[in-house]
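thread: overnight batch results

M.L. [08:02]
morning all. the overnight job finished for the chain we discussed friday. pasting input first so we're all looking at the same thing
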Amino acid sequence: MEPLTDNEIDVFAKALLLNKTEPDKKLSSEAIRNWNEIATGRLQFDRRQKEAEALLKVKKEDILSYWDEFILGDPRMLISEVVPKSGSASSKAPLKTFEDTFHFGIDDLDSYRMAQSGS
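M.L. [08:03]
and the structure it wrote out:
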């Protein structure tokens, strides 16, 4: 596989830019996007425009730096298992546990978060 050129990265960035700046085709899409800003408390209703502006500034070095720092530099693993409480696919416990740092079967997310933060 050949490395991406600066031109190819520009093409990808411009395609993403077009996607970000495309008007909503349905009122429900705009409403969902705006309610998401309200629900998360971010209130950045111009997020798509800011993301589009940032795409214009992306360079090959930025992508390579991100890759080196976050993909290659920090080896982490996330394992997620969704098991129904009842039915033929239900299960009492996971088949395997990997380390003490992994927690399975969390029923109360608020209690789990408090325990993790030490509160």
